[in-house]
Amino acid sequence: METPVATKGVTNSDDVVVVRSLEKTFCDFWGRPKAKAINEVSFEVRKGEVFGLLGPNGSGKSTTIKVLLGLLNPTRGVVRIFGRSPRDVKTKERIGYLPEESYLYRYLNSEETLDFFGGLFALDSREKKRRSEQLLEMVGLKGVQMRTVGEFSKGMQRRIGLAQALINDPDLVILDEPTAGMDPVGCREIKDLILNLKARGKTVLLSSHLLADVEDVCDRAVIYYGGKIQQYGTLDELLTERDTVQFTMPALSEVAQKEVLEVMQRHADKENIRVDNPSQNLESLFLNVVEKARASDETSGATSGSEVAEFLRADQPVPTQAETMLNRLADKEAGKPESTRDEEAVGTPEPKVDEAKLDSLSESKPEPKSPTESSVEKKVVEKKSLDEVDDKLSGLLGGD
To answer: Closest by alpha carbon to 215, among 236, 246, 185?
Structure first.
């Protein structure tokens, strides 16, 4: 299949990521070109799809991701994320990133780690706690949330790394080798999560060396080699062998198989015909065995994750603390009461009044006293207190 090349200048409203004629050349100390990591790369990632970056080590995948995140400046070319520059702060707020290596504070536990990353996005403390609980349950670390990250295996570190990448409910999720170091169960769960994020409308950019993972979840992909795109298209376009046809049918008797073979041999060479029994892949076998074992045994390590966190599926995301403060300032300038805005944002229902209890309180409440009666009563109490003090002093001094 020939490599399709994106047309320069052509953009679509559904394009979340647009890359045109991207080049990145690394130079030495004196500014002399040392290596061209990316050479004339063009592609786009559409809203709500899973897009794969494939290629051997050193082919330019990680460099492309760093340019998309604004961590590296391109030597030449155009890069747009949500129609903005990758270095724009508003762009970064909408991105969740899981790097190839889990750069986490090893002396923080899981809860503290998510609390820290949630604070970077100015999330309200209650919202941070709610999201952290859901994410830890989702990635299977709820039972070990008090252990420090430094005690985690690499696979468990990838799980908490994935949780921190989703704490801000991002629109674009960039995953660099998300299943590295994970067991087959964890790999399957990550792939299921990616598909669930896609179903929720998220856009996922996935870089992986495990081609089976990409094949299971990606809609389109590019294959890098030497900093260039060698193949680009949908998975069906890339994987379908147009010159071969495969038939699948129930098991036949020997007589029926012989008749089918005779018909096929009249239309194709005998050497090109193969008859065998289908088999499941090793991943399916492994998952079936582990699922049966899990029903009877327990483990002290990571467990199977739960469904996608509730806040990731919510239609209306909860506003951040910074957004709430800005809304209040805007309401104050417009003369709108703050309480009204808070009720609209949080959706707090009006409290119900117990009429019977209110009536009983009203009946037992004493009649209010007039100001004159209150002042007279106060003076009587003060005089009585002074007389008691005089009596005590007289007794101590021995006087009458």
So the answer is: 236
Of 27, 9, 25, 148, nearest to 80 (Cα)? Answer: 9
- The answer to whether 22 touches 224, Cβ cutoff 8 Å, is no
Residue 174 gets which letter from DSSP? E
Least Cα distance to 193 among 33, 394, 68, 50 occurs for 50
Residue with tokens 């073979």: 261
Q: Of 145, 146, 218, which is closest to residue 178 (Cα–Cα)?
A: 218
In one letter, which amino acid is 33? P
Q: How far apart are CA 11 and CA 18, in angstroms?
A: 7
Q: pLDDT tens for residues 293-333? A: 666 655 545 555 556 677 676 555 555 555 566 666 666 66
Angle at 235 (CA atoms; ends 233, 236), nearest 5 degrees: 100
pLDDT in tens, 374-386: 555 555 555 556 6
Give the residue among 261, 305, 233 at the shortest CA–CA distance from 44: 233
User: Structure pTM?
Assistant: 0.64
Distance CA 101, CA 98 (A): 8
Indicate the pairing of strand 228-234 with strand 220-225: antiparallel
Parallel, antiparallel or unpaired: strands 172-176 and 95-98: parallel
DSSP symbol at 366: P
**Dihedrals phi, psi of 158, to nearest 5 degrees:** -65, -35
The burial class, CB within 10 Å (0-12 / 13-18 / 19+), for 182 is buried
Q: How far apart (Å, rounded) are the C-alpha atoms in residues 364 and 362?
A: 6
CA 63/CA 56 separation, integer angstroms: 13
Residue corresponding to tokens 């299949």:
1
